[in-house]
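To illustrate this point, we now present one chain and its tokenised fold:
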Amino acid sequence: MTASAARDGLNQAPAGQTATTIDRSQFDNRPSFSVSDVLRDSPGISIKQGNGPRDFGISIRGSNARNGFGIRNLVIFEDGFPVTQPDGLSRSDLIDPHAYGAIDVVRGPSSALYGNYATGGALNFRTRPGGTIDGVEYGVDGGSYGYLNNYLAAGKKVGNFEGSLFASDTRGDGYIGSSWFNTQTVNFLGTLKATPDDRFTVKIINNDLSTRLPIRQSLNQYYTNPFQQGCATGVTAAAGCGTVTLNNNGFNPTAGTDKETAVQAGLGRNDRRTIVGGRWEHDFDNTTTWRNQFVFDDRNISQPTGTTSAIGDFPSYNYMSDLTKRGEILGLESTAFFGAFYNTLTASSDTRNVMPGGNATLGRLSSNLHSETTNYGVRAREELKLTTSLTAVAGVGWETTVLKGTNTAYSYAGPTGVTTTTLTTADRQFQNTAPELALLYNLNNEWLFRGRVATGYGTPQVSNLFVVQTGLSGNNTQLQTQKNLGYDLGFDWTPNNTLKLSATGFYEFFRNEIVSQATPITGISYTFNAPRSEHRGIELAADWKFYRGWRFMAAYTYLDEVYTEYVENITNGAVFSFNRAGNKIPGISPNELTARIGYDEVTGQLAGLGGFVEVQWKDSFYMDNANLLKAPGYELVNLNVHYKTDLVSDTFRSLNLFLEVRNVFDRTYVASANNIANTVTTAGLQNPASTLANTTGSIYAGSPRAFVAGMKVAFK
């Protein structure tokens, strides 16, 4: 860890990591609704639509591409404060890009520094400092499908205190039937330099979300009715509408069932997320810094997303303490780091049946899960400058994870619902160690070469242990920790201040990779370990200001990810086994590209006027372990015109206007395709792609052509 990174609370990616920083200049002049609009500028990143307007699956090197909702297999921070809970779940609902000045993307296994779940890497969102805002800014974005975002940023640096406050109110009708949303976010960062040696930082985030959710479609339903129009009721539903089958009595089908659409049933999410963190940094001298940090993170959910609704409160606590020492070892410049950490989450959550009646009427209890997740350990890191050109970085992390859970499943017999309960318990302890080694070689001012060997690990979450392949409650407690060993080799070439090229090749070996896939029960996923798999790929990035006012940017990722050892058992009367070795891991797009060319007038009366054309390409990918069915790829074109000018006024500082056309050619495309399970006939033959194409619970379509305009005014 570099000294600056330690002092700023991991506000930037430490030396030795394979990393990209996305700065505000890349998204300040466009309508940045979600992480999807900003993170595509980094190679290695892939984005998929989740369950909600700003709930996106963020994947680094394919790490999260198989998950149906939220973010897993990477660790997320805001200003160095963790926003990944102890069970490894992160969600992007609380992320409004207008609040941030930069985002650091750390790619590849990084558990030596970031601990459990960092098999894919890490993200750090950096809030705009108060001194940078230096006043008040008000902005509004609005456009197609009822989209409206009012936001406010205020910040100041006064004496030894610097603070910034961001607030936004975002709402829209959604472009798919039953996808109306309304979400509010507050984000505060304040730092006080109490003495020359002591700094105190406070972080507060609160997000309230209310949204309706459509039902994920089969591939055939998507082709028929991608935006789920005409889906008012199950009886009158148009072809291609997703439906769920609900028990009329709320507990079993003895009183009959009703097939209902998402609109009719009232499916959606009503969630709140509150994070409060504090950090104290103390300098013993000008070479040694001690840091203590505490975070309280509460996730409160009510999620009727299908035939059942998840209800629960998930409070967690995260404490860390570390020392950073800057000096010399045998005459060589050194930065040494040692830290310890402890975090825990204890919760009791219910799964209740959804029944007819509209507005997600709740029936009886389906299951209750009492869970405890605890992680504790230590980490150490040494950065040593061997010569003026060569720097070595070595690190190691050790961690114990304890998972405890009691799952109570409820079944109801007969018309009166005689209750039977089935208990499944788990008490698992995992110990993991993650070493890493990196070398950085500055050939000269133009060339930086990077080499890295690193490891990562990620334990299952408690809820994974109690869902079996049918989607029902059961015993899945045999799940193991996934581990990966990765090799990175790359370079950065910066011949002048107008051009930067980066390239990285990587090869990662996984053991017991945790993979999830959809089950026959809508909204429920099944998790399993693939014994061995390999991930390899290439990441390329370019930023070229090739002529005055002109700028070309591109981020490209190639992924080749395969099972090398995995036998899948599928039951239909008997159990049939299929060897998946050599098959592509589903959900992984092999090619993704974001490229943008733009022009900004820098002088004259039109100074500040500019625009760009952007192309996004995502290749087709397999949806199943047998590699029989593919989700189609797509190419999108976005067009942007913007104008920014300083204002001569005692009140106003600047004005920023923009207009953007998304998906200019109105392409219909897949924004999200969850993995689906293969099935077999009673004779043990795998059902073909034509059958799998009717498997529901997978696809959300992406937005058709949309127009978004916005303005931002900065006040003094």
In short: The CA atoms of residues 369 and 681 lie 34 Å apart.
